[in-house]
Design brief:
heterodimer, A: mainly beta, 7-stranded mixed beta sheet, 4-stranded antiparallel beta sheet, globular, B: mainly beta, 6-stranded mixed beta sheet, 5-stranded antiparallel beta sheet
């Protein structure tokens, strides 16, 4: 238990569906991250939020839409995804400016 | 962009053996981190290194920050079944910048 929770743990969706991933951290951190983990590839940073402000968008397609209503919660809204978007989506948090990131267990997403 | 090359990609060892893996880069990093990921879970931080030449232990794990600042090493002594998983290195280029670059991982399997 790292103090970062993610729901759902598994998600299967069609290409026309709209769904959301949720992340919550109980560590008092002020930076939160979304990563994509595909087989045989390094973790890919998608978005970074510091104090609820987005500070990094790593050229992510607009079908992924993040939302950070406060420093403890982070969402990833999904719509019209493609099969190649199937992956493990990991949320992480840290204190701003520090390297030590704590990861949640991830959401295993399958797009049919 | 920066790349971290991890080797070996996979290891098959017997219980009780020692394990060595490394991570190299063409760029200088200010911080090196080692994470372990169990199946179905997110990465968990094992060791963080902040100075060139630094040697840090966490139980049976020992990691070193290479003197050139372009590499790092992780050793596991007397492996046990729960050591199975994927080990990732990660580097931070700039202090105060949360962005981490991850390696592709070393998958450790213990043969009974």
């Amino acid at each position: 238990e790292t103090g970062v929770t993610q729901t759902p743990r598994h998600l299967v969706m069609g290409m026309t569906n709209k769904k959301s991933l949720k992340c919550e951290q109980h560590l008092g951190h002020n930076a939160m991250y979304w990563y994509k983990q595909s087989a045989k590839k390094p973790l890919e940073l998608m978005f970074v939020y510091n104090f609820k402000e987005q500070t990094e968008n790593n050229s992510v397609p607009s079908r992924f839409s993040p939302e950070c209503p406060n420093s403890s919660h982070l969402f990833l809204h999904l719509h019209t995804l493609q099969p190649e978007d199937s992956a493990l989506y990991l949320c992480a948090s840290s204190h701003k400016g520090t390297d030590t990131q704590y990861f949640g267990p991830g959401t295993r997403l399958t797009v049919l | 962009g920066q790349q971290l090359n991890q080797s070996p990609q996979s290891m098959f060892i017997q219980e009780g053996e020692d394990v060595s893996m490394n991570c190299t880069s063409s760029s200088i990093f200010n911080t090196w981190l080692w994470y372990k990921q169990d199946p179905g879970e997110g990465p968990v931080l094992l060791i963080a290194l902040y100075k060139a030449g630094e040697l840090t232990s966490n139980g049976r794990l020992t990691a070193q920050f290479g003197t050139t600042r372009k590499d790092s090493f992780l050793n596991i002594s007397a492996s046990i079944p729960s050591d199975v998983g994927i080990y990732f290195c990660a580097g931070q280029l700039f202090f105060g910048n949360e962005k981490l670059t991850f390696g592709t991982g070393t998958r450790l399997t213990i043969i009974p």
